[in-house]
TrEMBL record:
PROSITE patterns hit by this protein: PROKAR_LIPOPROTEIN
Lineage: Bacteria, Pseudomonadati, Pseudomonadota, Alphaproteobacteria, Rhodobacterales
UniProt keyword list: Signal
SUPFAM superfamilies, per database record: Periplasmic binding protein-like II
Signal sequence bounds: 1-31
Protein name: Iron(III) transport system substrate-binding protein
CDD domains according to UniProt: PBP2_Fbp_like_2 (cd13547)
Superkingdom as given in the UniProt entry: Bacteria
Provenance organism: Roseicyclus mahoneyensis
């Protein structure tokens, strides 16, 4: 009975967030000297309503921790886009209203530079990290910077998505596939199709020197027995010039400057319903995936709140939040957002973050050898 009441109380708070269209209690955003924005929120509400299945999942699923027992200040460093980060914190606060979340958002590279400086000074600030990829988490784990959370319930998940020692936890799947302009000379079905003569000089791709997702994609493709480094050499022979991140690739293809590209899934899938002249393909060989893992630092000051944040993100309601923001949820019971195929129709390329970390410099040098710096 007590568990049911706790779920009901949490549902009331969360449902209030879902139905509110403006932020009720955002306490401000201030740029620090580095240009990074710092945010503090408590008891805020999201700008965009989520669908009713989130509420149903909360009632149907097991109760989260007793919310009144979790309180205090929680410091989050994240590489999520600002709007996504705000929605994540708002939804967490709806369930854990006694936690004040201070969060800093920047790109993963910038977040890690900041954190490394704090490590060097002996004063790391965050309790939790929510950043782009598992390779960075592997590096932190190897340095003893992450606190294991073996009690986290990951029973519903594919074991391949979670760190075996429970130092970090995947929260979504952001895959990289092929985007093409609807005026393209053919519809690609495989990665090898980008080597067809009709694609010569018409391919955009992000650079692994600038994008974590592109780095993981490079490792996954070059590890595939039918592709390997010969595939990247073929892309270079096609006149492909990797530059910047995924946003530039999307803009180049959507704007008609290029007909094909390698890009993260949500960029085109979100815009296709708005009339963007693009389509997205999950190639038959498979797709790589960034899993936006969350982890607790070994120096965390508020461990109960940090564990609650992890619990929320990997719970059914946290996974529904990811889906409602337009991402492919990692939880197999949560339906993908509109525009995505069912999870069992998506083939993931094999990827070992520990191997990628160990050979990171070799991968970088080989890429520069093929495409230049």
């Amino acid at each position: 009975m007590i568990g049911t009441l706790r779920r009901a109380n949490a549902l009331i708070a969360l449902y209030a967030v879902l139905l509110t269209s403006s932020c009720a209690c955002h306490l401000g955003a201030v740029a620090d000297p580095s240009g990074t924005f710092r945010f503090r929120t408590r008891g805020t509400t999201m700008k965009t309503p989520m669908i009713a299945t989130l509420a149903a999942a909360l009632l149907a699923g097991p109760a989260l921790a007793q919310t009144d027992d979790v309180s205090g200040r929680l410091v989050l460093y994240t590489s999520q886009p600002n709007e996504d980060a705000q929605r994540t914190v708002d939804a967490f606060n709806a369930v854990y209203p006694n936690v004040t979340v201070d969060w800093i958002r920047d790109g993963t590279t910038q977040v890690m530079a900041r954190l490394e400086a704090e490590f060097a000074a002996g004063s790391p600030q965050p309790d939790v990290l929510l950043i782009a990829d598992t390779v960075v988490m592997e590096g932190l784990e190897a340095q003893g910077r992450l606190m294991p959370y073996p009690e986290a319930d990951v029973s519903a998940y594919d074991p391949a998505l979670m760190d075996p020692e429970r130092h970090y936890f995947s929260t979504k799947l952001i895959t990289t596939g092929i985007i093409y302009n609807t005026a393209a000379p053919f519809v690609p079905e495989s990665w090898s199709d980008l080597l067809r003569p009709e694609a010569q000089g018409q391919i955009a791709m992000p650079s692994p020197l600038a994008s974590g997702a592109a780095t993981i994609h490079m490792v996954a493709l070059t590890s595939h027995p039918d592709l390997g480094w010969a595939y990247y050499e073929g892309l270079a022979a096609q006149g492909t010039n990797p530059q910047g991140g995924n946003g530039g690739v999307y803009n180049a293809v959507a704007g008609g400057e290029q007909m094909f590209g390698m890009v993260v899934d949500f960029l085109p899938i979100r815009e296709i319903p708005n009339g963007a002249p693009v389509a997205f393909v999950f190639p038959e060989e498979g797709v790589s995936a960034v899993t936006e893992p969350v982890a607790i630092l070994s120096t965390a000051q508020n461990v109960p709140a940090a564990q609650a944040f992890v619990d929320f993100l990997i719970s059914p309601e946290g996974q529904q939040l990811a889906a409602d923001m337009g991402y492919l949820p990692a939880h197999p019971a949560i339906a993908p957002p509109e525009g995505f195929p069912a999870m069992d129709q998506i083939q993931l390329l094999e990827f070992d973050p520990a191997v990628a970390l160990e050979n990171a410099e070799d991968y970088r040098l080989r890429f520069v050898e093929i495409f230049g710096g």
